[in-house]
Amino acid sequence: MPIRIPDALPATSILESENIFVMTEHRAMHQDIRPLRVLLLNLMPTKIVTETQIMRKLSNTPLQIEIDLLRIASHEAKNVSADHLSAFYRTFDEVKHSRYDGLIITGAPLETLDFEEVDYWDELTEIMEWSLTNVHSVFHVCWGAQAGLYYHYGIQKRPLCKKCFGIFENRLLKSSSPLVRGFDDVFMMPHSRNSEVRYEDIVANQGLEVIAYSDECGVSIAKSTNSKHFFVFGHPEYDRVTLKAEFERDLEKGIDIEIPQNYFPNDDPQREPIVTWRSEAQLLYTNWLNYYVYQTTPYDLDTM
Q1: Which positions are tagged coiled coil (predicted)?
Q2: I need a labelling partner for 291 at 20 to 30 A (CA). Which of 154, 221, 253, 269 fits?
């Protein structure tokens, strides 16, 4: 959250030059405050795990947030009960006449499929098109980020020769961005994907910018220059044991999968993983909510 100080205080310009968020008295007096409305489109098969992870990040802020859960109606979820979906999730038909401050589109284990081969691609594109007029800011995660770049900017994902799987170093390319305010120059993030969107394809579009990059996994964070769309190609929301569960799941299926990199101590799957990504993950969601949703969304959403 910002600190509120007198407009003419000398510290104001000094703190702003250090990329610290300062709210002047004039701006504070003219702010209208209400709860933020955030829609979570959960595409992950493990819906309860994912909704818990995302909500943990959204809840650890001073902001008041109202969350609606959205599911794809044209796809049958197999890893969650129908009762859970019926009780807690809405379909697009139920929300399409509403407006939201923020929308989060999660990942999905679909990187090896062409987008048009996904059985709910038409419904997803309808939601993404609707978001242009009914959502102030959209946060795309992993496959959701790849899908968003493809739909909105025509940028295709590329297959990786080996799955990017583990905890990887990422370095800031634009440390002045409020999105990564408070980040270390180098930070860790979980990645679990078989495809990527290449750096050169993103920066070729003048409406996009790369915020962070991994030498091992490529682009990790990008955004639109108008701050409408945010693209995170890892899974900062993952818990301590999420990659372990994915690793064990693939082993049980007989998939040839390597041990997640930089995850188990001494690469020993019998040892408990050490969390090295939690603080920046929290900052990422908090910064998005604060600087790109709370600070800029209209008080009356109908005026968007």
Answers
A1: none
A2: 154
